[in-house]
Hints:
The complex is a heterodimer.
Chain A: H1 3-29, E1 39-45, E2 65-72, H2 76-105, H3 114-130, H4 135-196, H5 202-219, E3 222-225, E4 231-235, E5 238-242, E6 245-246, E7 249-252, E8 271-274, E9 280-281, H6 286-322, E10 336-338, H7 353-356, E11 357-359, H8 380-385, H9 395-435, H10 439-473
Antiparallel strand pairs in A: 1-2, 3-4, 4-5, 5-6, 7-8, 8-9, 10-11
Helix pairs in contact in A: 1-10, 2-4, 2-5, 2-6, 2-9, 3-4, 4-5, 4-6, 5-6, 6-9
Chain B: H1 9-36, H2 47-102, H3 108-129, E1 132-133, E2 136-137, E3 163-167, E4 170-173, H4 178-182, H5 192-205, H6 208-261, H7 265-290
Antiparallel strand pairs in B: 1-2, 3-4
Amino acid sequence: xxxxxxxxTAVSGLYAYRRQSEVIANNIANVNTEGYSRxxxxxxxxxxxxVPGVFSKPSGVGTGxxxxxxxxxxxxxxxxxxxxxxxxxxxxxxxxEILARVELTFPEPGPNGLAQQMxxxxxxxxxxxxxxxxEGARSQLLERANTVVEGFHRSAQxxxxxxxxxxxxxxxxTQEVNGYSARIAELNSSIRTATAGGITPNDLMDQRDLLxxxxxxxxxxxxxxxxxxxxxxxxxxxxxxxxxxxxxxxxATNVQPPGQALTDVNLQKVGLIWTKDGGPVVxxxxxxxxxIQSVNEVIPKYLNSLNNAARAFAETNNxxxxxxxxxxxxxxxxxxxxxxxxxxTSPAAPTDFASRxxxxxxxxxxxxxxxxxxxxxxxxxxxxxxxxxxxxxxxDAIYKAMIGQLGVDGQTVNRRSQIxxxxxxxxxxxxxxxxxxxxxxxxxxxxxxxxxxxASAKMISxxxxxxxxxxxxxx
Amino acid sequence: xxxxxxxxxxxxxxxxxANLQTNYTALVELQDHISSGKELRRPSDSPSxxxxxxxxxxxxxxxxxxxxxxxxxxxxxxxxxxxxxxxxTYLAKIRELSLQxxxxxxxxxxxxxxxxxIRTIRDSLVQLGNTKYGNRAIFAGTNDTQNAYDSSxxxxxxxxxxxxxxxxxxxxxxxxxGDQVFGTASDPGGNLFTRLTQLADDIANGNVDAAKSGxxxxxxxxxxxxxxxxxxxxxxxxxxxxxxxxxxVTLEVKGxxxxxxxxxxxxxxxxxxxxxxxxxxxLQVTAKVVQPSLxxxxx
Lengths: 475, 299
């Protein structure tokens, strides 16, 4: 082994520690970069010759240090776990948002809620009963009837609007997902090329992982890593990304279970489909899952209850009103009707009663307050109708039960969302505790690298002195 | 939070930020409660309290309506009572006059004068029979008529009862019909007004025996009216009791509603102060912890 070999050994140290400090600089620079995984230089000893030659044999001393690889430090198990937790979080976040909007639709408990408006309506029957001849009391009754009807209309309209905006959001989400899928496919292609060329494209892989995190937040995906460095992104058994190709998804607004034709457009179910063949995509989580769940289950549930309440309101009122007599002694007609359309004849499927409910009479004299066609100042029918609000099967009861259900649902989803957020945060922290950059640690490593660099440099000058010594012998 | 082996710079910052946000959310929540004065703002705040509040609200509507009904009932009963009291005075006067009329000492001129006075008072009694509350003849039952009696004393009303619901399941009749008060046309001698007309005629014509039996009939009428008055009086007492109870119920339900919906200000303020302290402490600690790193200690 020549004297100059030690020089090479020292130089390999200079290179290695220079590279290490470069990587540390990169880590520090990216301390706040979203999705960045800290990198580490894998050092290995460069072995000396191990095969004996004809005139020489190796001394067994190594020939320095070499850089094996620059690797990303991350825990793949944690990363995969985080994908599903983030998907669950995304779904619950949307469900929570939509339910909060549903709650805003019903300003309960309060003076502007339907419950109070119906109570006031019933109570004005008593005023009519107290003074059946009074036009004022009768007009007030009609006014309050209109207020209740408007309350039903507004709530139904709010729910329908909420449904539409939610579907719009779903559509925006699919576009976002399609964009991410396409970029992941492009990154896959670049990564494959780089890997084939023997380069480890850490930064590209970080970008890809970040996109996968974003996509799972939206639709809930799982991943599969291939040998060539590409990652397949799977959703609902199909591939959003396979190698360097991506598949698009879209919103379908009339996804019915077979045999269930729903005529009411507001109750039709929405879903996601593959654009290429129209096959269904059933997201396992993510914001899309939350929206689909809300649009298909939550909003129709409250719309149905509201429709049932509106129907019960019209039917109990009309049934009682038919048995009474108005100011002219004529039998009472319908107090409430539907516009457009008529009342259902048989127990029909819930349909948009709430938005079609109208007050059927405009002339206050036509309110049938009397139970006797000859006793026109009798108010006993009105007196009895004032008690209809207390019916256990009436609109008030249905509505109150719905509000109770809404409260329970809201509370449940809030709680679940809170718990899920905690879990997601924990998993996220566990994940970040592996892949995140710690400045203290980087600084320590930097100090170590700096010292090693200085020592390697010192080696060179020492060997220089040794060579000088040898050269001095022959002077 | 979890005990993680390795705390990273962003992770630590995120954790502290999350904790700060939790603190701040609680603070804003409390401020919201205090500024709105409502503990219960949406059903999910507390589903059971929401249902209670809805129940209390409709109870409150109902009991306020009952209060209105009760005061309406009281007015009906009072108006009827004062009409009947006045009619008793008139009838006493008539009795006095008719005794004078059948007295043998009264001559025909005096009898005519007595008869005329009786007729005048009778007209006033018909007016009393037409007593109105609001625009409604209270003795006409439920018939849609301006007056309960025409000028000759014929009943225009019916036998319908006017009923006010004063509490859950408590319906009280607040009227007495003309037939109940002044008698019907099929009674012996007809109703009070026919009887009075007859009595005046008998006195004017000097039919002393007929006039005397007319006075007996008059006494029957007075008893009948007293009976109705007693009945209305008893009802009035009952209504009075119910009114007091309704007012109590309204107050009580208002209290319950406020307990359910409204913020306990004292408690909320104490909570707010505590939460504020917690938040400030968290801010200070965060400011202290986030700053230093090894960088500060290397040359």
